Amino acid sequence: xxxxxxxQRTVVRALRFVPEAERVAFTPDAPQAxxxxxxxxxxxxxxxxxxxWVVAGxxxxxxxxxxxLGLALGFTLFHSRFGFTSGWRQLAAVGQGAAVRAHxxxxxxxxxxxxxxxAGGFSLAGTPKPSVAAVGIxxxxxxxxxxxxxxxxGSCASGTLFAVGSGQTAVVLTLFGFIVGSVLAALTFTFWTxxxxxxxxxxxxxxxxFPGALGLSLLVMATIVxxxxxxxxxxxxxxxxxxxxxxxxxxxxxxxxxxxxxxIVLAVLNAGVLFVSGGAWGVTSxxxxxxxxxxxxxxVDVASWAYFQVPANAKALQGSVFADxxxxxxxxxxxxxxxxxxxxxxxxxxxxxxxxxxxxSVLGGIAMGYGARLAGGCNIGAYFSGIASFxxxxxxxxxxxxxxxxxxxxxRPLFGLTNPKPSDSIC
Length: 427
Known about the structure:
mainly alpha; globular
């Protein structure tokens, strides 16, 4: 999209059906942010306090602290517009690597913090557990499906949550698809764990020790940064633009943050989740739980499914969603993004969604929901937290999901979505 300093209304109208989760690469000269929506801010703050209060009453202070971190994650995701979907699309389509370089900064910061916490066993909830998953066929299939789904559905897992919080109606459909896909994966759990070889987990920390794993990880990240610059020289990537933002100190609450700020804050918050709750940040396991609870309420005996007979899943199905760590984080992200978008004057509920976009949102969500369960996580649980935990599956997930992204780019026009062009500004 080429934006030639048009009036703000024109910009808003042009971006009407582009999810916020898709707009992540920016230039410093952002237009002035519109006034805050005070009513929505008030509603969001009430919901935030209620979330922490309810969680504290059900599960205690550690989970309440986890919910507060979820709120901070949602606030940060919105203000930094930190995107995974568009970051990979920009690199694959037009050679713009700014977002991917921000990914590497985020991962580098997180791996350093995680190495301290994991090696030292520092956590308020006992020994911290790294996000390490198996390397096998389900990982390859799941990550590839997720990569396709990101581009067709218009957002990733974290992007879906903060876009829902900021009022993006089309992405609500993506969330619905996420839940459907997660339930389908739970239904076919036995096939992917018994019939298909699931593989074994590989921890770089166990193989090389924490110092060696950290050094190797940072080397790979530096190499990826170098590759993005090589691609940029060959492709001549387009300029990038920022969404509306407040000026001065108000930018903290009402602005679009630089990507490097978002990268560092997200890494620190993920380490905070590991320290407080004993586990790293994840997103998608909650979607299968939510779908299971809905079906159970409708009389479906999901408790007899092999997936929900896994002790941890059975416990989650029987308990409150406010006692589930990932659900609490997800609720926090949605509410945190609600507050952030309202403060920035960007909360807008879209009453109509083109049918092609709606269809793509649902189908993309289904692909991501199904793929995430096969792959042991999404762009957060597998890619971000997996790599930060020194799990080999995180790196493989990223490479395969990038391959799925390329395929997804060819499918986007079928659902009324456009791809970046060299002559476009990225917005």
